[in-house]
Amino acid sequence: LNQDDQIRRWVINRLACGLSLEFIQLKRLFGIEFFDYFSDCLAALQQLETDNLVQLSGESLRILEDGRLCLRNICMVFDAYLHNSSQVFSKTL
Known about the structure:
Layout: H1 3-18, E1 20-22, H2 23-30, H3 34-37, H4 42-50, E2 54-56, E3 60-63, H5 71-76, H6 80-83
């Protein structure tokens, strides 16, 4: 795994298992700023926030109650290979 794979795996794992991501932890472990590193994901995250599935603040990303039903979709926002692949994967809600 390259550095990007490790970062994205950690983010997806935190969201899938803990339903939240503290940006300070990301900075401590990998030395990156969430909003800079994941700038390509911000539009999707803002839409998820508008839909009341996540809460995005300056310090964290939290999965809200309704977002638990769409957890897989939320985590897919951070999957770099999913967006760059011609493979067909199982469907989600």
